[in-house]
Every structure is written in C-alpha cells, then in structure tokens.
Amino acid sequence: MIRTGGWRRGAVVAAVAAGTLLLAACGGSSSGGGAPAKATGPYGFKTEAQSSSAPITVWVDSTRLAAAQAFQKANPAVKIKIVSYDGNANGSNTFKTKMSLFDKAGSGWPDVVFTTDNNSASWGSADGTGSLAPLDAGLVPQATLDGFAKGAMDVCTINDAVYCLRNDLAQNVLWYNKKLMDEFGYTVPTTWEEYETLADKVATEHPGYIVGTAGDAWAPEVYMWAAECPANNVTGATSITVDTSDPNCVKAAKLLDKTIANKTMSTLSLFGPEFVKKQGDKVLLLPGPSWYGGAVFQGTIKTPKGEIAVAPALHWADQNPPSTGNVGGGTWWICSHSKNLKAARDFAVWVTTDDAYQVDLAPGFPADTAAATKWLAKQQSSGYWANDISAPIIAAAGQVWPGWGSAAFSQEAIWAKVVQAGMAQGDTVESLLPAWQKEIENQAQVNGYKVS
Amino acid sequence: MPTAPRSRPRAGSWAPRNGHLFVLPYVVLLMFFGAVPVLYSVYLAFTDGDGRFAGLSNFTETFSDFRFVPAVTHVAAFVLIWLIALTVFVVLLALVIHRVVSRRSRTALRFAYFVPGALAGASSVMLWLFLLDPSVSPVSTLLHQLGYDKFTDVIAPGHLPSIFALVAFWTGAGGWILVLYGALNTISSEVIEAAKVDGAGPIRTAVSIELPMIRKWIVYMLILSFAAGTQLFVEPQLVSQASFGIVPNDYSVNQLAYQYAFTQSNFNGSAALSVGLLLVSVVCASVFVARGRLFETD
C-alpha cells in the first residue's frame, strides 16, 4: 500500500511542481503568505464573511474517506465537497505544500483537512502562515476539548493555542504473538532490559524469529522516544534543543545495534514487499504504535485470528514514571479562511467524537476518551485478539513522553536520510548518532529554528 | 522571427505574412509559459518575502545551504556520465542503423530504439525501480550475483548517478538516435561515394566525413540534454519515495529548490536556485553554440 502509493504520489508531486510554475506565473501580485491572525472576532482570529449555507471542502486520505461519507449521511443538509489526497503519509508534505501555494495565491484553501503527520501546528499557526484556525478560543466548546485523552492535543498545541482535533492516538505498546511465546516457553518482557535478554535467547534458541523492526523512518519514535532521548525537544515556536550524545540515546542505540547484530531486529520496512515475504510469519514481539494491530497484523502480514496479544508498553528499568513513544496519529485542522466556520467546526467535532464514525468505522484508537472505551469493547468482541487489549492500550495513552516535540521539519526524513542510509551501509546506530545530531541541527537551522 | 523566404521585394519595413500567423500561437504560449515565469522567478530571486529588494541575499543564503554542495555534486556526476554515454552510444547506434542495408531490419531497429521513449518519465522510472529491486525484479538472480540482496544495496549513494543516467539514456536516447539517423541521411551519396573511391573504409568515412557533417545535430542534442539533465527531479524524487527516504528528497538542485518553496515556504530562495540553474544552462549552451558553430549556414 505504501510503496505503490509512494510512486503515484511522486508523479503527483512532479505535476504539482510543474503546476506551481504556472501558478507562480499567473499569481501576479504576491501577498507573501497569509497575514498572521490577530485576536479578533468571536473565535479569536480574523474571519472571512460567514455564510451558513456555504459549502465546505474537506480533504481526507483514503482511510478517512469513510469518515467524511459517514458525516454526509448523518448530516444531509450540510453541503460538503470531499477531496481525496494522500493524507501527508510518508512525509509527503502535501498539506503544507498546497497551503503555501494557497497562501501565495490568496485563495483556494480547503475548510477542513485530515493529516497523518504531527507538525502542521508549527507552520500553520498564527506564528507561521496563520492559515490554520485556533480552536480553543471560542470555535470548539471547551467541554468537547476536555473530552480528549490527556496529552492527545499536544501535537495540536503551540504557544498554548490548540489548532487541531486529534483523530486517533498512536501510543506505542508491546505487540506479541501469544501462541509462539507460549510454544517457546517465554515470558513477556516488561522492561527494555528484559527485552534485550529475551532477544539474546531468541537469537540462539529460535534463530529467524524477530523481536522488532527498525527498517522504517519512525524507528526513532519507537526506540529513541521511549528511551527519553532528547533529540527533538521543541522548546518554543522556533527553538529546539538537540543532544543525541545523551546517555538515553546511546543506550537505545546500543540496544538496536545489539539486536540488529544478532538478527532478532529486522531492518526491513514493515510495509515493503520483502518483509511480508521473508519475516511476515516470524514476528514474535513487535514494539510499536496502537495502529499496528489493524495495519500490520490484520493488514500486511495477516496473522491468523487468536494469536496476537498486547502487553504494556516497554520501559527502561530506571524510568519513573514509565515512558513510551508515539508514531503518528491523525489530526483534523480547520482553515481560518473558511466561509462557513460553523459547518467546518461541526464536521471536525463529529468525525473525532461521534460513535457513528469513531466507534463503528475508525481503524485506529480514538483520541476522544468516550469513543475510545466503546471502540476497545468493539475490538475485543471481534475475537481476533488473544488477550484483553484494552488495559495496556489505555495505560500507554497516558505514558507518552512529552519531551519529544513536533517541529516544522520531518524527524522521520532526517532519520531515513542519515541513520537508515548509514545502517544500509553496515554502520552501527551508535556510530551514526553524531551524524544524526548534525543533520537535525542543519535542518532546524534552514527551517528557521534556533538550536541549543 | 520571420521564417518565410524573402522572395518578394520588401515594401516598406514590416508587414504581417501568413508565416507570422503560424508562429503566433507558439509565441503566445512561449510568452505565458516560458518568458513570464522566468521573469517572475528573476523578480522573486532578487526580492524578499515582502517584495522588498534583497540584492544577492537569496543567492548567498541558498548557495551556502548545507544541502547545496552535495546536490550540485550529485547533479554534476549524473550529467557527466549521461552526456558522455549519450554522445558515444547515440552516435554509434545511429551510424550502425545507417549502415544496415536491409530495409526491414532498419525499420525494426528504429522502432526498437524508439519504444522506451514512448513511456513518460515517471512511468519509466517505476519500471526501473521494479527491475532494480531484488525482491521483485525479473532479473533478481543477476542482482544477487552482483551482491545486491536488498533494494537499499542497489541504490547505495555511489550507484545513483549511474542509475539515473541509465534510466535517462534508456528513455531519451531513442529519439536522438532517430534524429542523428535523419541527419546522416541528409549527407549526399556523392560525397560518400567520392570517399569510397578515394579508398576510405567504413571507419574512415564515419570519422572524417559523417561525424563532421552531423556535428551540429550532436551539439544540438548536447545542449538540450544538458538543460534537461541539470533539472534532474523526477528520478530522485521517485527513488526517494520508493526507498522510504533513504535517498534524501534533496538529492538534486531542483529538488532542493522544491524543498525551499514547499517545505520552507521560501519561494525567493527557490527562485534564486532556479535562476542559478538557468544561468548555468545558458552559459553552457552559449559555449556549445559558439564552439559548435550551430547557427552558421553553409
């Protein structure tokens, strides 16, 4: 799914690049980006003339198409235009790309947008282009905002203003194959130290089986984030501190190196064709986000019913309280230039909280607490899971370490470019930490961040 | 430019003719999609985000970017490999096809050369990505024998310029072979026969007669290919996507310009990079035109 999508997107990107030249040519007068929203109007920002009958345009990825359609079915009176796009998957940056074009052109903005990345607040807030609407200054009722899980809105928040509604949480837990673990006579590890010991045992007793993967660009969000590695500590709208030589980063890197060396850590991409073919039926443990359950086990590798279970997120023995990471989790954004903010708001609130979508249709763990409880009950009743998955997933939702921020540039792209490329050449992760540091600093600087 | 032969005496200075009508649509399109964007880029390159004159600051900023030198190196390596391959093999293949006596095999060869060119840029890159990925490639045995077990082994940084040159050659060479073949056909048979009478063999004929007479077409091919090559974008962009980012999305200069415009919202920096590319292309083209005496008439 990811791979072919990637190519298609590449072509689209090329087309957009070509189109840009034309747009740039015809744009004529340039406004130089949307003016920063001032604290005016009923919603805390400057609004366009409102019309309650104006149609709203919503951008969704293919998975969230169902959300928009469900809304339309439940609210036939609201005129909505659904536009399907790549949802910003794999760091494609489509959302930002298109928005900067609309800012430049001074028109064309959508009303509501779904994205799977977590950094839109950093560029679209009032400190950035100002084209995204703050939601907590009157647009969305505080009671609705309070209904979301603790920390769910961290990725939406910049300078204490909330700019998006979280669609689903992507907290990391420990997925494991209960059938295989029982067969091998292993106990499920609770700390990364135990995990490392178990990996050694697997390497000698059951070579070929894997305890995790580090072949995707979000590997740092599983291993480094959980280790509280301060590689991405966004301290302000344009300031970040980076220290990949911190002992926390080094211990996570050593863990990766050791498990990669004894071949219990896969370096293949979870969504590439090689992984399914070579290791799809060899997954013993898999630390990763809550959406792995649907996307990986039921989706790409198709593990049979009754084998997969969830354990509490792994943590390092010295951590108190225990920390885990987070990989993605979608968000809904409202554009401040919308001509029908009420309808846009109703749409965003409905798709993030209403049972008709979040419980009945949504593939990921809902960020809205009430919906999440019902969603888990429904998952459990499907009979796919080998244990009760609710407790570990709910517990992990509150354990995501807040020290890993969302900057305007993609940490995943940096990891892929420097660390994964180096790993492909046979370098150890530990030896690549300085290069990782350098690239983050460089990227931060060209994106206007002050690095300390 | 008036292209009709000036057979009639010039009455006054300038009068519209049929020829002007024919070129008019082209001129209009050229203005809108060629000249105006270029001028707008130049304007952007010398101004800042608020439209104030910025001098050379956009240029100094982008040229000192930590990604700039690697990108230029990548593109230079690619263009060098590609232009050499293009000149050597296209000329060689054109000469070969010209020598083939049988009419039917000549047609078949011409068709075979031209087929890859029918695939648009992006789709031909995808085809090559399949070929080069050991897990799905039809020639995976060959890749394994060369020591490449994973896609990431094949697309190691050192291999990329050659891979891109290979893809570009495969898609683009066919058309040029036909152009040079056409050029070879314009050489009068009397000249070739005279050479034969003087005792020139096939190699001597090629080097001393045919090559000098199709020099202009070769130069023309180099100019257009150089301009296209420095704008390398689709190939690395797709490989970047397919490799999940291991090949960075700022591999080439054009990609870097794209990054400036769309991930940093710095259209001025992007324009500065594009204007830089344009300058390099124009300078190189001028050198080629002058040295290749492209506009001289016999």
Descriptive account of the structure:
The complex is a heterodimer of chains A (about 450) and B (about 300). By secondary structure, chain A is of the alpha/beta class. Chain A has 17 helices and 17 strands. In chain A, the strands form six sheets. Chain A has a five-stranded mixed β-sheet with strand order 2-1-3-15-6, with helices on one face. The longest helix of chain A is centred in the N-terminal third of the chain and has 26 residues, at about 1-25. With about 300 residues, chain B is mainly alpha-helical. Chain B is built from 14 helices and no strands. In chain B, helix 2 crosses helix 14 (about 265-290), helix 3 packs parallel to helix 8 and helix 4 runs antiparallel to helix 8. The longest helix of chain B has about 30 residues, at about 70-100. The chains are: A alpha/beta (about 450), B mainly alpha (about 300).
Write the layout of secondary structure elements.
The complex is a heterodimer of chains A (452) and B (298).
Chain A: H1 2-27, E1 56-60, H2 65-74, E2 80-84, H3 94-105, E3 112-115, H4 120-124, H5 142-146, E4 157-158, E5 161-162, E6 164-166, E7 168-169, E8 172-177, H6 178-184, H7 192-205, E9 212-213, H8 219-226, E10 233-236, E11 239-241, H9 247-261, E12 265-266, H10 273-279, E13 285-289, H11 292-300, E14 308-311, E15 331-334, H12 341-353, H13 355-358, E16 365-366, H14 369-381, H15 390-397, H16 411-424, H17 429-446, E17 450-451
Parallel strand pairs in A: 1-2, 1-3, 9-12, 11-17
Antiparallel strand pairs in A: 3-15, 4-5, 6-15, 7-16, 8-13, 8-14, 10-11
Helix pairs in contact in A: 1-3, 16-17
Chain B: H1 18-45, H2 57-63, H3 68-99, H4 103-114, H5 121-132, H6 140-145, H7 151-154, H8 160-185, H9 189-197, H10 202-213, H11 215-230, H12 234-242, H13 253-262, H14 267-292
Helix pairs in contact in B: 1-14, 2-14, 3-8, 3-11, 4-8, 5-12, 11-14, 13-14
